[in-house]
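User: I'm writing a short methods note and want a consistent example. For CoA transferase, I'll paste the sequence; you return only the structure tokens, no commentary, since I'll be parsing the reply automatically.
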Amino acid sequence: MEATAQRAAPLRGIKVLDLSRVLAGPLAGQVLGDLGADVVKVERPGQGDDTRSWGPPYLNNASGEHRDAAAYFLCANRNKRSVTIDMAQPEGQALIRQLALEADVVLENFKLGGLARYGLDAPSLLALNPRLVYCSITGFGQDGPYAARAGYDFLIQGMGGLMSVTGAAEGEPGAGPQKVGVALTDVMTGLYATIAIQAALAERARSGLGQHVDLALLDVQIAGLANQASNYLAGGVLPGRMGNSHPNIVPYQDFPTADGDMILAIGNDGQFAKFCAVAGHPEWSADERFATNPQRVANRVVLIRQLRQVTITRDTADWIAALEAAGVPCGPINRIDQVFADPHVRARGLRIEVEHPTLGAVPLVANPMRLAASPVDYRLAPPTLGQHTDEVLREWLRLDEAQLAGLRQRAIL
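Assistant:
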């Protein structure tokens, strides 16, 4: 196949002013940066994004110092330039307004009304720059009875229903609601914010006008309930915790093996028949209790008990080799070190390294979007605090050395 001609990253030329911190907002900024946007991250002088100190673990430099390089910060802040500005001072607010005049996008995740006192809220900045796409990320949105509340991922996983369907079933060991092992609501919100921002930019190309984008963690979490929400809305079925089982598909869960565990993800009756043949029990697929998925769901307890008596007889690797050869979806339950050692993960290049000014080669997780002609662009490692202050203010605002020195003397930068 002829190689695709490479073009510039899709968002090259778009300027993003990132006023966000922690995870949801910074992740959105990182994705926009990966897609080619010039993302300027505004941080507090001397402190910066809270996650710079959220460790250990930290990534140390050659002298064993980590400064502001917590692993948490590194996960969501590549392809950005860091500028320090004291937003609490009127002169700092004026600088940010000037940057917003040059920007295409403002991204922020302050509490409701938190930026209004600085004149940096959506109405204020859209009045100055009507072409601006201003994206606000909050826990509960810009309106509604909970709008003024602070929102945190763990809290939202509980309020938004995710924890009610996560964890072992009632009566099983360790039963009780569980949060997901990563801040999944924050991650989903960052991705939805990225989609919404790009949609608003596309609409601006037609109308010539920007708009305010309102992203709420609670909204996103409820949208992320997917089939579980639909099961309730359409069928009146109140989903509950089922451990690793699936509410609508059987067998679709973990099973014990002779040396550990494996996952079966059988999605149709044909795959079930193939599994039964490999397992040495072809009669199961002809049994009226198990022949079709609705029947397997209805007789879940009996079937799973029988399957477990068989899966325990062979090693995980043996099962996976035999089932993959038969076209039955299955896999191991990997630790994260095993994930990055997996030959397919290595072949897909999901571990990357980006050169950092003080830390050397920083290991990061690759962006999973594969654009054949205009690929993501890993230009910058997560920045040191204020690393690009002079560079950006010279470039975006055309400030000279005397002006920069004066701002530093007045503790604005």
